[in-house]
Design goal:
heterodimer, A: 768 residues, alpha/beta, Rossmann fold, seven-stranded mixed sheet, two-stranded antiparallel sheet, 34 helices, B: 79 residues, alpha+beta, SH3 type barrels, globular
Chain lengths: 768, 79
């Protein structure tokens, strides 16, 4: 991915800035193509996106800054953009020019940020994107006159159709060689005077020279990030000087903060007067009618539910078979490579460690791709903002905003794309809380555990003529259990770790547009490759670690002997095995209604009789595997921690199963299969595993499993962060290991306490 | 009157945005400056937030945010 265009000439750096929803990423992709690199700025959650292109022998490095309505930094994250533009961000370096992209159909407001960019005095190129939308609305703009008045090139553009891209490239190259321009100045001299005074005072206090731009921003942004940062070392002095400066300006009819918006919008209107004409009456555009329906009290909610339903249904229709295919492929590859290698630690490492680990990564890919396909589609067509609008009231009850709804909803399929989707939440505190509670939503990997426990330990009771079953009710309760727990947790995080004023929900509702397939696919590819590259390697490492702990230090020679015998027996009984497989298929599919079931069963029993030596070998193998696991580091550790899990009603075997499933919770079913000597190839529906669990006993003969134990296990799985991939994605998205560790710690604690409470409460309820 | 008290479809002129905090500044940056015309398009299904039309674009504000904006209702001449 990281591909840099070789530079003949000295590379120039150009920043791209603009309002949200102006098609900035589309333009960025159109300009740079595949030559881009995504990372993070140190210490913040802002994505650092760089891209390269070469035009007429000049290589240009583009820095994509987060979409913003204004350059006045109110948060640490917004401060990054200003630092980049001022050349104060060491990872980016000096900026040679700026591309400001604006929505041509909404020029008046978009010029606000342009006026702030022009204050920097950097050569600037103005891109009037969404030109087609403006035309459709009957908005007439004269780009030549606009360029004339602004003194910078202004290029009409339809980035999603890749129109005018070469012209923009050429203007960028020209601008990157242009000398610094005089800053646009719309403020009175008295204001600059105050700025110079404050600058000198600041230098006295701190012995460092603050750029004029920042000093002036300091005066303008009441309570902004600069005020917070700069007044930290010597609060009293600077705050009082700042207040005095603002007071003096107020006396001159220059009221901070109101004056900035007034002057800039005044400038914007003056520039556009005679350059742009807007029809008196907004023409009735189809999207306006659409919007009325989609935000309607009843129809809007219905459409929203329908959209969410379709998204999740298609994920299960389209992604599930693909995931099954991945699992099948993993098994096939494992068997194929396994048959080529001699038995021993190396084969086990390759098959049970590496291939299983890679499979564990790939199995998430279909879900990630499909969910991102939908999220990118919804975002690109403009519906995402409406979804946030519809759901905001509901989410404010938890202390979050409407923007957290879709990421949390996505987490019901899988927390990984859910967490990645939080990038649409600009407010850092809201985003962090959403990331931290997303893994509590019941993802699809938890379902097998619930199935197994419910099917094995809850009686099949049904009510209302079979429409409501106890199993169904339990599954429903478990699916929403995590989400219910997430409500107080999110509230608690908002009150403690992420305290602060409620972020404004001042949001533009962009006009609807037809999504561009190129952009949508690009985004899906970006997310998917980021997951495989960054999280994948670590998931693999974790899988190998757990494999090692369960393989060593036991002596595996006896197991290998049995495995060799099994392989021989399998070739001896090849005909019988094939016949059995065909018969089983026939029986399952009922494809021949005429074929008598009794006859099939009879023939199957006969085959099983002949296959008995092979089955005996399997039993021996399973017993050996059980012993080996018990003696492995993992098994020994499980016995050591038995006192810790005993209050939850668990024995050491459950403890080991849970430990082994920390990299990926769905492993538990297979691990329990190994532990109860059934081999690893079991699933939640297998009768053998269910009866093995039902008949497992403590050394004194009491059954291990009971309804309270089953509930305790389910609650533990509902609340625990048993997913290495999720933790890796949290690390990546928050740009800090600490948050992954924190998520792990809080969820594990929560799971332990929850499981204990559930066990005690259920035992007490069932006893009384 | 306050901005959130408008009826659906009603136009008004902004008198003042109250406060000097981040929310007030964000409102002004989004173009809610005194003298500007704004109209209420509709409410979200649960009554909050509210959709407005200002400077030719659609803006969503929470009730608590709209409460800070003092407006005078305009009598629609087109009626």
């Amino acid at each position: 991915m990281i591909e840099k265009v070789p530079s003949k000439n000295l590379e120039r750096t150009v920043a791209v800035i603009g309002n949200p929803n102006t098609g900035k990423s589309t333009l960025f992709t159109a300009l740079t193509g595949v030559h881009s690199q995504i990372g993070n700025y140190p210490g913040v959650t802002v994505e650092k996106k760089l891209g390269w292109f070469e035009f007429e022998g000049q290589s240009i490095r583009l820095v994509d800054l987060p979409g913003t309505y204004s350059l006045s930094p109110r948060t640490i994250d917004e401060m990054v953009s200003v630092d980049v533009l001022l050349g104060r961000q060491p990872e980016v370096g000096q900026i040679d020019a700026v591309v400001c992209i604006v929505d041509a159909s909404n020029l008046e407001r978009n010029l606000y940020v342009l006026s702030q960019v022009l204050d920097l005095g950097l050569p600037t190129v103005l891109v009037l994107n969404m030109w087609d939308v403006a035309q459709e609305r009957g908005i007439q703009i004269n780009p030549e006159e606009l360029a004339n008045r602004l003194g910078i090139p202004a290029i009409p553009c339809e980035a999603h159709r890749r129109k005018q891209i070469d012209l923009i490239r050429s203007e960028i190259v020209k601008a990157s060689h242009a000398p610094k321009s005089t800053p646009l100045d719309i403020f009175p001299e008295a204001f600059h005077e105050e700025g110079r005074t404050l600058q000198a005072e600041f230098q006295q206090f701190s012995n460092q020279v603050l750029p004029t731009y920042l000093v002036e921003r300091l005066i303008l942004d009441v309570g902004g990030q600069l005020e917070i940062d700069l007044t930290k070392p010597n609060p009293e002095q600077l705050i009082s000087r700042l207040k005095e400066a603002r007071e003096r300006l107020k006396a001159l009819q220059f009221r901070v903060p109101n004056i900035e918006a007034k002057l800039r919008y005044g400038w914007s209107r003056q520039i556009l007067n005679g350059v742009m004409s807007v029809p008196e009456k907004r023409p009735a555009v189809a999207t306006d009618t659409l919007d009325r329906w989609l935000t309607h009290r009843f129809w809007g909610l219905l459409a929203f539910c329908l959209a969410m339903f379709i998204v999740f249904q298609s994920i299960s229709w389209a992604a599930q078979p693909l995931m099954k295919f991945c699992e099948f492929g993993q098994k096939q590859v494992g068997e194929m490579i396994g048959s080529l290698l001699p038995f021993g630690p190396f084969r086990s490492l390759v098959v049970d460690g590496v291939i299983a680990g890679v499979g564990g990564i790939l199995v998430f890919l279909p879900q990630i791709c499909f969910l991102f396909l939908f999220i990118a589609l919804l975002e690109d067509c403009g519906y995402m903002a409406r979804a946030a609008f519809l759901m905001d009231k509901l989410m404010t009850k938890v202390g979050l905003s409407g923007k957290s709804f879709v990421p949390l909803m996505s987490s019901f399929a899988c927390a990984i794309p859910g967490i990645m989707a939080t990038r649409t939440i600009e407010n850092r505190r809201d985003r962090m809380v959403t990331i931290l509670v997303a893994p509590l939503m019941s993802c699809s990997a938890r379902a097998p555990v619930y199935w197994l426990m419910v099917a094995a330990f809850f009686p099949s009771i049904s009510w209302a003529g079979g429409w409501i079953t106890l199993h169904g009710v339990m599954l429903f309760v478990m699916t929403f259990f995590g989400a219910v727990v997430a409500i107080p947790i999110a509230w608690l995080f908002k009150k403690t770790l992420f305290k602060g004023e409620t972020p404004p929900f001042v949001m533009e509702l962009p006009s609807y547009k037809v999504p561009s397939p190129r952009i949508v696919l690009h985004r899906v590819f970006d997310r998917a490759s980021a997951f495989v590259m960054r999280a994948g390697t670590l998931i693999l490492a974790t899988s190998i670690l757990i494999w090692g702990a369960s393989y060593f230090p036991s002596d595996h020679t006896e197991e290998q002997k049995v495995l060799t015998e099994i392989r021989q027996a399998e070739s001896t009984f090849a005909r019988e095995l094939e016949a059995k497989e065909q018969l089983s298929l026939l029986r399952e599919n009922h494809s021949h209604p005429n074929a008598p079931q009794a006859e099939i069963d009879e023939r199957l029993a006969e085959l099983d009789q002949r296959l008995k030596p092979l089955h005996d070998l399997f039993d021996t193998r399973n017993k050996i595997s059980e012993q080996l696991l018990a003696n492995s580091f993992l098994g020994r550790f499980g016995k050591i921690i038995e006192p810790v899990v005993k209050p939850l009603g668990w024995d050491w075997r459950i403890g080991v199963g849970v430990l082994a499933s920390f990299p990926a919770r769905e492993v538990i079913v297979a691990t329990l299969g190994t532990i109860y000597s059934l081999g690893g190839d079991v699933d939640e529906n297998s009768q053998g595993l269910q009866s093995a669990l039902q008949s497992a006993t403590w050394p004194d003969g009491r059954p291990v499993y009971s309804i309270p134990v089953a509930i305790s296990i389910m609650v533990f799985f509902a609340l625990c962060a048993q997913c290495a991939s999720t933790l890796m994605v949290i690390r990546r998205e928050t740009n800090h290991w600490g948050w992954a560790a924190f998520t792990f710690a809080y969820m594990t604690t929560l799971a332990y306490i929850g499981a204990w409470v559930a066990y005690v409460a259920a035992s007490w309820l069932l006893a009384s | 009157m306050k901005l959130h008290e408008l009826q659906i479809g009603q136009r008004a002129q902004i008198v003042e945005v109250g406060g000097e905090d981040g929310i007030a500044i964000r409102l002004m940056e989004m173009g809610l400056t005194d003298g500007e015309e704004i109209s209420l398009i509709g409410f979200a299904p649960l009554g909050d937030p509210i959709e407005f039309l200002i400077r030719g674009y659609r803006l969503s504000l929470r009730k608590t945010e709209a409460e800070r904006v003092e407006v005078t209702a305009l009598v629609d001449s087109k009626l």
